[in-house]
């Protein structure tokens, strides 16, 4: 294959990043925005020895799973939705196959076992099964276009150039009204947008959060400075929007691609909004970690709770990587005692506060790395209890994408819980960790993928492992 060559190719598979995969005379091509079943015309952009990358030029014969028109006109440019061109049932099938493929290939879980224990991906049931508007959080970079107009939108895939778009189809509808209000204000009072190349200008990002059950709205402006001129004017306008609850400023004067600054200053209202997952109430500040799709989170945590199988008698549960205590507080309703561990101090403050506002007294939270806190607790317990080993009935893990450290998995095995409930946002590292646990006395009993992020390639998975 040569660069710039135009080829006709049938898409047979889909890659981890959602790109279509097809072969021309045995040579593999990766083609973004093409889906299984498409016959496409593509231009080779990069040719390596055994594979290459091509750009989709035309869809010659569309797949039966292709939607006629993506809901968002920016879908191909923006890169936030990698598989919006695919009908929703096909997206769910792709995600299920991805989880299963990783468990078989990396986790070495026998196909016969998966046939018995794997459940279909839990999708978002909605009008005509087209799940949009599910994100309760959005971060819009602010910049200037080539004509000097202030714009907000999203970074184009793998770049820092802003594609103007104030109405993302995954975000809530009120976002557009809020952004237009801010952009009009900036134009009127000549407030400059931040320029990352020159490190000049003021407004960097707008963070928006929305409570699905409470309709409360949060606006946080991230600025390269201490304050915004004519601030009271902006606040006056934003306050008119129904549901406005919290307006804050975050100062970030560093030359960095980290979005939020460390300090939050309240301009109006309160410093947090509240929302519910199930019956549990959460207070969410601009820096809080909170699941972005509350509808599916409820299903995800419901499954984790089912898998834990708590009877409410005298079980002790550890929740590792507990964040703001979302899973811990769900489990506390049914357990005797829950211990949560999380490395981010602010998340633990949130977790303790969330326990308090829900009158939950049987959940304790520790700041630290799960891979250090749990082994230390295990050693300490042995010393203070005449050599008796610490025990947990259920250990729940919800690690970041890199999965669990092996030292942590070893401590879990040493503590001999009856059950391990593994909530994963990356099925490749999940499969690697499942392989370790299966080799060390645990068997995989249930696997359910949950679609937290429709139209993207991401998929969450909940697994139950029981002690053999």
Throw out a few tags for this protein:
seven-stranded mixed β-sheet, 468 residues, single chain, 11 helices, 27% helix, 21 strands
Task: Please give a quick description of this structure.
With 468 residues, the chain is α/β, with parallel strands linked by helices. Helix content is 27%, strand content 30%.
Give structural notes.
The protein has about 475 residues and is of the alpha/beta class. The protein has a seven-stranded mixed sheet. Strand 1 and strand 2 form a beta hairpin. Helix 2 runs parallel beside helix 11 and helix 6 packs across helix 7.
Write the layout of secondary structure elements.
Elements: E1 6-14, E2 20-24, E3 27-31, E4 39-47, E5 51-61, H1 75-78, H2 88-105, H3 111-117, E6 137-144, E7 150-155, E8 162-164, H4 174-188, E9 203-210, E10 217-223, H5 231-238, E11 244-251, E12 263-269, E13 273-277, E14 280-284, H6 294-308, E15 316-320, H7 326-332, E16 337-342, H8 345-357, E17 363-367, H9 370-384, E18 394-397, H10 406-415, E19 419-424, H11 427-439, E20 442-450, E21 460-467
Parallel strand pairs: 3-5, 10-11, 15-16, 15-18, 16-17, 18-19
Antiparallel strand pairs: 1-2, 1-4, 2-3, 4-5, 6-7, 6-9, 7-8, 9-10, 11-12, 13-14, 19-21, 20-21
Helix pairs in contact: 2-11, 4-5, 6-7, 9-10
